[in-house]
Amino acid sequence: MTSAAKIPKILVIMGSIRENRNCKVISDWILEVARQTGHKLEFELVDLQTWELPNDELNLPSQHKYESEYTKKWSEYVDSANGFLMVSPQYNWGYPAALKNALDHLYQEWHNKPVLLVTYGGHGGSKCNAQLREVFQGLKMKNMQTSPQISISREQILNGVKESDPSFTEYKPVVEKAINELADSFEPSSGTN
């Protein structure tokens, strides 16, 4: 990317809307790691609690004929992004309904944009990770190869993850690697193999 190029805007979408969620602390930690990499990326934290998306739209998202003002605003906001970093817990071997609802409201707005997924849960959110990566593929997004899975303990699940939790240290290298891939996705290809 040349110095005159616009800095890519990355929406960091928190997948959980629960009141007592770990998603905010984990997302903040990932953002801290991302900023320490020194890449020229603009990160903007997105809390789905603040988006009052309806459960359904009258038309198919692929038609791009939105009825709800909330969906129209969501469409403009997502469309303004160059890429995404999604942070999601695993719920009952799957992903949160609020995140799926936010994704399913749109279609073309996600196309051909890079997406980095970080999941967390008792076993790193592996099932959620696999399922969401498939959803991203259906939305024609560009999945990053590295997709960190952060394991948290039962105590952390029940009582909350603390800011700057030392248990995250082991995940820093894989998160850095994933952020590097995301940043590289905005670089023009060199044309060499």
From TrEMBL:
InterPro entries: Flavoprotein-like_sf, FMN_Rdtase-like_dom, NAD(P)H-dep_reductase. It comes from the Eukaryota. Residues 8-146 form the NADPH-dependent FMN reductase-like domain. One of its GO terms (molecular function) is FMN binding. One of its GO terms (cellular component) is cytosol. PANTHER family: CHROMATE REDUCTASE, NAD(P)H-DEPENDENT FMN REDUCTASE LOT6. This is Piso0_000613 protein. It comes from Pichia sorbitophila (strain ATCC MYA-4447 / BCRC 22081 / CBS 7064 / NBRC 10061 / NRRL Y-12695).
